[in-house]
Amino acid sequence: MKFNTICVLGLGYIGxxxxxxxxxxxxxxxxxxxxxxxxxxxxxxxxxxYEPGLRTLVQAALxxxxxxxxxxPEAADAxxxxxxxxxKEQKKADLSFVESAAQSILPHLRKGNLVVLESTSPPxxxxxxxxxxxxxxxLKAGQDFLLAYSPERVLPGQILRELIENTxxxxxxxxxxxxxxxxxxxxxxxxxxxxxDATTAEMVKLMENTSRDVNIALANEFSHLAEKYxxxxxxxxxxxxxxxxxxxxxxxxxxxGHCISVDPWFLVEASPEITPLIRTAxxxxxxxxxxxxxxxxxxxxxxxxxxxxALGLAYKADVDDLRESPALMVGELxxxxxxxxxxxxxxxxxxxxxxxxxxxxxxxxxxxxxVLLLLVAHTELRNLVPSEVAQLTAARMVIDTVGGWEKEKWxxxxxxxxxxxxxxxxxxx
Length: 429
Ligand SMILES: NC(=O)c1ccc[n+]([C@@H]2O[C@H](COP(=O)([O-])OP(=O)(O)OC[C@H]3O[C@@H](n4cnc5c(N)ncnc54)[C@H](O)[C@@H]3O)[C@@H](O)[C@H]2O)c1
Hints:
Blueprint: E1 5-9, H1 15-24, E2 28-32, H2 36-43, H3 54-63, E3 67-70, E4 78-81, H4 96-105, E5 114-117, H5 125-135, E6 146-149, H6 159-165, E7 168-172, H7 175-185, E8 193-197, H8 198-229, H9 233-240, H10 263-270, H11 276-286, H12 288-300, E9 307-311, H13 326-336, E10 340-344, E11 357-359, H14 362-366, E12 371-374, H15 379-382, H16 386-392, E13 397-400, H17 407-412, E14 416-419, H18 423-426
Parallel strand pairs: 1-2, 1-4, 2-3, 4-5, 5-6, 7-8, 9-10, 9-12, 10-11, 12-13, 13-14
Antiparallel strand pairs: 6-7
Helix pairs in contact: 1-3, 4-5, 8-10, 8-11, 10-11, 12-13
The structure holds nicotinamide-adenine-dinucleotide.
């Protein structure tokens, strides 16, 4: 199948790189977003999110004339839906964005078109939700137009490279739909393209993220045991991973972002009676911010009135994304416990929060501090030189929740050093 024009709905972390990569590969792309500010910004070459290399790519796509930005869809050969799929109360999947994106395609859907859902979705969303909406056009999914699900598996921070190099799974509601999907993504994908059915492709994405979540929960539970038994979990994990068939992940302050901390709930919500392990893992990881707060309380005696520097607020290292961020939750919980939290997030210096004093530069965030709490392993924070930091702060204690700092260097600079999951340092060994 040949694609001259495609329409990408949703210009966020996934849709914008995808639209721009198609455009720089020679296809006419209409990038659509319902957010008027995002549309106006992009039309003037201003990006609303940070991803390495993305600004250059978007500007090249716009300059080529192949990428146009619009607030509503237009007729095209293919439509790609990359809108958010967050959860609502009680961890129920919020598919309203997928529904409204599918509805917005209706007036433009033509015979022979391909529609691809990329948004992470509960099993059977493509078949049971998207197909019936599109069928309202009078055309029939699988017969008059083609419909596929293709999960996006890129790593924030590496999106532009992974978009091209990763293996891509494309699940069609029938074989012709999957094959049309392959024809579309072959435009720029250099990784393998594997075809399957739509529901399998949906499950694949959810299984990948759930697998990581369960394994991080296991590492977190190991860290609780290590704290109890006077063991350094980081050392123990390193040693256990010398076994040829063991690969334990790292513990930390929790799991965030809008993928790994959200997607497993799509399975739990859909089938609560057969997902006790997935639910428990989610609960363990969701409870980690509270564990960090308890850890801080143990070190500081009381949290009331203590000034704590929260270093990093993003959900993981070297990204600007604060969605579902455990670091942010730690800050909020510390504030609730009576501490005065001064935060620094190098990737979002203009961020503000009612509970936290957010400083624009590192120096202001640590001056009056009692303890430096490392919440995100941003390269800038990992590379801090303890002897230099010692000159800038009243703090003489550091708490490392991500294994980002070296104990010996901080102790040599005059700091007490504690690391989450390190039962040895807790017992002063
Ligand atoms: N961000 C990631 O790293 C990542 C990785 C893999 C999968 N995903 C999945 O991809 C999907 C998109 O994620 P994202 O991070 O790009 O989200 P995002 O919030 O960054 O961007 C989504 C965009 O869609 C727009 N939008 C909402 N409804 C719309 C509609 N009806 N029409 C047009 N635009 C609409 C929003 O305004 C927003 O700009 C989600 O399902 C997510 O789970 C994300």
